Amino acid sequence: MKIKFLLFLFCSLNLFAQNPTIEGDLMLCPNTNGTATITNDVNYETYQWYFKYWFLNDDYQPIENATESSFTYDWYTYDQALLKVVVTLNGETLESNAIQIDSYNWTPIYIQNELNEFVTVDPNDGTLLVCEGHTVDLNLPPLFSENIVWYNDGVPIEGANSLTYTVTAPGAYTVTASPNICPESSNSTNPLYVQFIDCSLSTPNPELEKNIEIYPNPTPDFIHINKELNADLNYIISDMNQKTLAKGTLTDQYSKVDMSQLSSGIYMITLYNGQHSKSYKIVKK
User: Fold this and answer.
1) Strands, sheet with 222-227, edge to edge from the N-terminal-most edge strand
2) CA-to-CA dists, residue 161 to 15, 157, 264, angstroms
3) 112, 103 contact by CB (below 8 A)
4) Does residue 172 contact residue 125 with C-beta atoms inside 8 Å?
5) Which of 70, 79, 84, 282 could form a disulfide with 37 if both were Cys (CB 3.0 to 4.6 A apart)?
6) Structure confidence by residue, pLDDT tens digits, 230-256
7) Is the pTM of this model over 0.85?
C-alpha cells in the first residue's frame, strides 16, 4: 500500500512539474488577431509571455501585461515572431515550446503569360508584343482565386473575374484578387502593357535570320550560344513574369552565359539587334 502511495505521489509531482505546451494561430491574415494558449491541464501559479523575431539575433523580450494562460496577438506587431510562455509552479520556473507567427505568408500577386512565336517581349520596356489576329492569355497563380477583377487602362472589364483573361485589345492590364487563405485581403498587380503589331509587315533582319544554336537545354548552369553573325548581339534573360534577371552582349561567335545563380524553372532569353528580337525558352534544372 505504501509503495502504491509513493508511486501516486511521484506521478503527481511529475504532472505538476510538467513544462507548459502551447499552441496557437500561426497564420494571420491582415487586420486579424490570433491567440496562443497552454494546452496542458495544469494550473500554474504565474505566467509571463515572451517574444522575439526569428530573423534577429536578439533575446526574448517579456510582453507587457501578457500574464495569463493565453495571449492574444495582432497580425502586424507579431508577424515573424516567436512566442513562448514562462510559468512558475511550487517555486520552480518552467518554459514552454516556441511557436512562430506568420502574416503575409503568400507570394506577391503577379501576372503570368506564355511567350511564343506570336507573343514576344519588347526588350527595351517589357511590353508584350502580340501579332494582330492572335491573342495572349494572362494568368494568375491559383492561390489568388477570390474576388478577381481584371482592368484595362484602369477600367474594370465586364465579366473578367477568372484566373485567366484572354487579351484581344491593347492597353495597360492590371488585376486585383485575394488569396483563398485570406479572402478579405485584396492585392493588385503592376500594369502589364500589351501592344498589337502587324507581324506580316516586319522587315526581316538578315543577322537574326541566320542560325542560332543554344545548348544545352535544359541546363544545370551555363548555356552556350553559337551564332552565325558578324555583328554583336544583345541578350536579356527574364522570368515568365517579364522580370529582367540578367543582360549582356554577345561579341563572339561562340559565347557562354551563366545561369547557375538562377533557381530551377523556365526562363526566356531574348536576343536582339537594333529593332529586331527573337526569344527562346530555356529550362534551368
Assistant:
1) 212-215, 222-227, 254-258
2) 56, 8, 31
3) no
4) no
5) 70
6) 777 888 888 876 677 888 888 888 889
7) no
Give the helix/strand (H/E) hosting 7.
Answer: helix 2-16
Which residue type, as a one-letter code, is found at position 132?
E
Burial 8-22 (b: 16+ CB within 10 A, else e): eeeeeeeeeeeebeb
CA atoms of 57 and 260, how far apart (whole Å) = 31
- Is residue 251 within 8 A of residue 265, CB to CB? The reply is no
Pinpoint the alpha helices (H) of 122-191.
none
Integer Cα distance of 125 and 130 in angstroms: 15
- Which grid coordinates are listed for 62? 517579456
The tens digit of pLDDT for each residue in 182-233 reads 898 888 999 999 999 877 655 555 555 557 889 998 999 999 988 876 777 8
Where do we find the cell 500554474? 44
265-273 and 233-238 as β-strands: parallel, antiparallel, unpaired? antiparallel
In DSSP terms, 152 is beta-bridged to: 155, 173
Amino acid (1-letter code) at residue 243 = K
Average pLDDT along the chain: 86
Provide the residue type at 273 as one letter. Answer: N
Query: Which whole-number Å values give the CA distances from 253 to 102, 136, 207, 211, 224, in the listed order?
Result: 50, 34, 12, 11, 10
